[in-house]
Amino acid sequence: MTPAPRRTHHAAPPREDVLAAAMATIAERGLDGLTMAGLGRDVGMSSGHLLYYFRTKDELLLRTLEWSESRLGAERRALLDRPGSARERLEAYIGLYLPAGHRDPHWTLWLEVWGRSQNADDDARARQAAIEGAWHRDLVALLAEGISRGEFRPVDADRYAARLRALLDGFSIHVTVGIPGTGREQVLAQAAEFLDETLSPGTA
């Protein structure tokens, strides 16, 4: 009697591979192209298996955002630690903060998570706040350094950081959705002009 063939067990891919695949799908096909079934096919898992790990699509999106933010966070810390003036590093921070262009996948994902957060639970809101807090703390520290060196005029670093990030958020939405006249290069120029008007020593 011929023995029955043994079933081969395929281990699930590392969770980071799943999140990378989700971000790649968003970059290639947008959020409408990201489905549990499609993502499962891309990584060799069933949609049920994905739901076992992530429970809901909202959780998958938030996990993917956290994964993307961890990579941006490492890049942000590296640019803030490099030599150069505080103004040069502030401009690099702004360049990293802003979308690369229309339909930037990271910002597309951010906007989706923000939209869904109206009905999010306390844990999800706290995790979103942690992402925002990391960007804010690094900006406050950079502003404080520039003020102490005399590169920037004395301002309340925390309040200025909140206002600058609100400005960048607004511009970033325009760039991501493709509003005419608000391309990345135009927004970078607007941000530089804003810094000149509000942060340069001797400005009112």
UniProtKB/TrEMBL annotation:
Keywords per UniProt: DNA-binding, Repressor, Transcription, Transcription regulation
Start-end of DNA-binding region: 35-54
Domain HTH tetR-type: 12-72
TM stretches of this protein: none
Pfam families xrefs: TetR_C_6 (PF13977), TetR_N (PF00440)
Domain of life of the native organism: Bacteria
Gene3D superfamilies: Tetracycline Repressor, domain 2 (1.10.357.10)
UniProt-listed PANTHER family: HTH-TYPE TRANSCRIPTIONAL REGULATOR RUTR, HTH-TYPE TRANSCRIPTIONAL REPRESSOR BDCR
Protein name: TetR/AcrR family transcriptional regulator
Species of the source: Streptomyces pakalii
